[in-house]
Every structure is written in C-alpha cells, then in structure tokens.
Design brief:
- It is a single chain.
- Helices cover 30% and strands 27% of the residues.
- By secondary structure, the chain is an alpha+beta fold.
- The protein is elongated, with a radius of gyration of 53 Å.
Length: 509
C-alpha cells in the first residue's frame, strides 16, 4: 500500500475558515442585488399601473375592453378613437345685467359722538338717565343744585332795578335842565353834565341786564340736557359728587346712531368714475354686509368724498349714510361695503372661472357639437364677484369650459360630467364576483355530468358528483328499476335589484 502523502501546511496568513467566509460574503452580495432588483421591479410596476387607465364601462369580461366600447378599439378611449378625452365642467353664456360695483372694508362711524360736559360747577343732585337708554335732544339728564344760581339771579335783578331807578331820575332832571336852558335860566354846562350822567346810567342798566341774563343762563345750565339724540353710554359720575366744567368724562356720552355713516376708502383710480356719476346727479346705492359677506345689514346712499388722497395708501376716504332704523349698524363696527356705480344691461356673461389669460390676451374654450373644444379669443368687460361680461368674441347660448381647462388644447376631445357614466367601484367588484361564480358553476356542472356518465354504479356517479361539488353531498342516484322522478327546478335565489340572473347550467350558491 502506498503511504499517504502528508498534508501540506497552510500559509501562515491564510486561516482554515477563509474560504467559507468568502463564500458567505459572495452569497450576501448576491442576495442584496436580488433584493434591489425586486424593489426596482416593484416600483416600475406600480408606476406603470398608475399610468394605466381603469376599466370603464367599455371593459369586457376579465377587465378587457369590449370592441367598439368606450375603452375598446374604435371607442373614444381606444386605439381607433384617438387620445383619451378629459372630463370638464361647462356653463352656458347668457345675457344678463351685470352690476359695476366697488368692494371696500368700512368702519361704522356715528354722525355725532358727544361727551356731555356741565357748563357750571356744583353738587350733582340727581341723575335722570339709565345706562344704554335712547334719549332725545332736550331730555334732562342730570341736575345740579340750583340754589346758588337762583341767589345770583336775584342779586342781578336787584342791581338792575336800582340802576333803572337812578336812570329814570337822571332823565327827568335832564328834561328840566333843557327847559331852563330854553329860558336862558341855566348854564349849558349843567345841561351837558346831566346828559352825560343819563348815558352813564343807561350803560349801567345794560350791564345789569346782562348780569341778570347770565344768572338766568347759569340757572338753566344747572339742568343738564341732551344736546343730540342717540344712545347714552355708561354713567361716569353719580349723584352727590361735585362736578365742574373741567370734568374729563363729563356727565354722560351720547352717540347718535340713526342716521349713521360708514367710512371707507376708494382707490384713486376709481375716483374719477365716482365723481362723474355724482356730477350726473346719480344717487349711488351703498349696501353694508357683515364680516362674512353673507348677511345684508343695511342699505343706504353714498354721501361724500374726502378732499385729498392718502399718500400712504393711494386711496381717498369716502362716506355713505344709512338710516339705520333697526339699529343693525353699531358704531366702530367693521363691515363690508358694496357701492353700486352703474349697471351694464344685456351683456353676455360667463362665470369668472371660464375666462383664461394667455400671451395673446383673454380667451375661453368653447364646446363644439362633436365634443371638442375650440380656443377663442374674447374681449372682457366689467366683472362682478361671480360673472364677467364678454364684450366680443362670444355669443349667448354657447357653452364654455369652466373646470378642467388647464389640461386642454385647441381641438381637444372632452366629455362632461353628464356624459361620463358613473360606475361605482362596489358595483364593478360585485359584477366581477358574480361572473367568477358563474364560471365556477359552469365548470362544476360539467364535472358532474362527466362523473355521472362515466360511473357504472350509482354510488360511483354520486361520488363523482360529490367531488365535483367541492365536497358537498350529491343527491342519491336513481336505480334502473325505479320510475323516473319528476325534475323539480331549483328555487330561484333572492337577487338584489339590478343583479342579472345566473347563466343556464350554472351552479347557484
């Protein structure tokens, strides 16, 4: 026997486990490449699947397109029908009156906002109003102690009476001196002196009368009355306090709310149009809406424009006046004001969303009779919130695209939401399930017939039929001696409305 050759020792830099480690690294790299390829294939499949249109009404059994249907050859979306049509929203151009309006944010400002100040100083004896009360001009709001003013009035009246008596005596003396001067019995100097005294006393009496009137006025001012009509505010002072003419908050604050104004701003570019309408004698209607522009608060008329342009905003302040009989407008309230400048009658109008802008100007997409669209250049006119007037390029009665026009081109084929049939996903899925059940029923029926024909015994036939039914027990086979049994048709299952009846020979589950 030959002696076995001794195994050569491995190099010192190679370990016995080196080949398995290299093999594992190679296998790991291969698995990584396979995983990356699978991920890339899955991503490509999902992208292609998202680009594939879903089966529509023209789809046949198994998801294919029926010939001549909307999704098959020759249909609108098939190979013979050109590119797939886009679903768009349409509207009909019509003749209507379009108002030319100005929209602005306004602030309700009262016509008068008065702080009622006392005209005389004294102790407040009574407060005769309720907070938030509606008062009229001349109503007594409070009273100041009148006794000091009555005393001053009596003193002024007494001084007037005294000076009037002196004036009367001086006039009588002057008359006597003038008689004696005519008889040349008195010097002219005495007559002139007496005449000067009469005039002096007349001046004193005039001063006394003025003092008396002032005393009367102060006495009247001790009764504080409302200078304007309006709603009175919160009470800043109570009875018993000493008030003077320098009181900051006064006795009360009255705000006139009927009528009331709304102050707003007009862009300086629209000021000439407003002035032209005012020069023609037009009454511009103004309407105030709430913050959400859903509720109409009041209707009024344009009042006036300011006399300068605000350089910071480029606008001119204006006012509109409202009767405000129902107190719907409250001072310092923010409202949305709509000013009607004029009305364009009989204009061809379309929704604002139908008008588009391009390098060649404004245009619309017009729907043709063959379900295609044509790009048509138009000239726009005045616009409102919802509609815009078309001055030229469009006739009343034509249909224009309002939604989905961003993906259209001239001559593109479209379909409206009315033309596109709506197929719910649940109905399509239930139809597919019913088709699958019908096919399985036909295959099961064929297996049962084959099993009954090949079996030589009734038991074999029953077994074959039972196997074809997927494990369900089949009816017992008839013996050759037994008379033929009358076949009873199976009861029709309860079908939902709109479900087609099962195919002949199909199994009913």
């Amino acid at each position: 026997m030959e002696q076995e050759k001794p195994t050569e020792p491995l190099p010192s830099n190679v370990s016995p486990t080196h080949p398995p480690v290299r093999r594992r690294r190679w296998v790991g790299g291969l698995l990584t490449l396979v995983l990356l390829a699978a991920l890339g294939g899955s991503a490509w499949y999902l992208i292609q699947r998202s680009k594939t249109p879903a089966a529509g009404p023209g789809a046949g059994p198994g998801g294919g397109a029926r010939p001549g249907g909307p999704g098959g050859p020759g249909g609108p979306g098939g190979r013979g029908g050109g590119p797939a049509s886009s679903t768009v929203g349409i509207a009909t151009a019509k003749q209507a009156d379009i108002p030319v309006q100005l929209e602005a944010l306004g602030t309700v400002t009262p016509v008068a906002n008065v702080i009622v100040q006392p005209q005389v100083s004294g102790v407040l004896t009574a407060v005769l109003f309720q907070e938030g009360q509606m008062v009229r001009k001349g109503d007594v709001l409070a009273t100041i102690d009148p006794q000091p003013f009555q005393n001053v009035l009596a003193q002024a009246a007494g001084a007037r009476q005294r000076d009037e008596a002196q004036l009367a005596a001086a006039r009588v003396t002057l008359q006597r001196y003038q008689t004696l001067l005519g008889q040349d019995s008195i010097a002219r100097q005495d007559v002139d002196t007496q005449a000067a005294l009469v005039k002096q006393l007349e001046g004193t009496v005039a001063i006394d009368r003025a003092n008396e009137n002032t005393a009367k006025l102060n006495l009247n001012w001790s009764r504080i009355t409302a200078p304007v009509s309006g709603r009175i505010g919160l009470r800043p002072v109570d009875a018993g306090n000493y008030i003077s003419t320098g009181t900051t908050n006064g006795v009360a604050t009255i705000t006139q709310i009927a009528p009331i104004d709304v102050e707003f701003s007009i862009p300086q570019d629209r000021v000439p149009e407003v002035q032209e309408r005012l020069a023609q004698g037009a009454k511009l209607d103004a309407t105030a809406f709430d913050r959400t522009r859903t509720r109409r608060l009041a209707a009024g008329m344009f009042a006036t424009l300011d006399n300068l342009v605000d350089t910071a905003t480029g606008t001119v302040k204006a006012k509109a006046r409202f009767v405000n009989a129902d107190n719907a407008l409250f001072p310092n309230q923010f409202v949305n004001l709509r000013l009607l400048l004029r009305t364009v009658s009989g204009a061809v109008v379309v929704p604002v969303t139908a008008l588009r802008h391009g390098p060649n100007g404004d245009y619309v997409y017009v729907l043709n009779s063959d379900s295609t669209v044509s790009q048509r250049t138009v000239t726009r006119g005045e616009s409102s919130v919802d509609n815009v007037a078309i001055m030229s390029g469009l006739e009343a009665g034509e249909q224009v695209v309002t939604e989905g026009g961003d993906r259209l081109k001239d001559g593109a084929r479209v379909q409206t939401s009315v033309d596109r049939p709506a197929v719910p996903a649940s109905g399509a899925a239930s139809g597919a399930r019913r088709g699958n059940r019908g096919e399985r029923g036909e295959r099961g029926a064929g297996r049962r017939e084959g099993a009954g024909g090949q079996g030589t015994h009734a038991g074999q036939g029953a077994a074959g039929a039972g196997g074809a039914n997927g494990g369900r027990s089949a009816p017992p086979a008839e013996s050759p001696q037994s008379p033929p049994a009358t076949s009873v048709p199976p009861a029709a299952p309860d079908l939902k409305p709109g479900t087609p009846p099962p195919a002949p020979g199909g199994a009913i589950r």
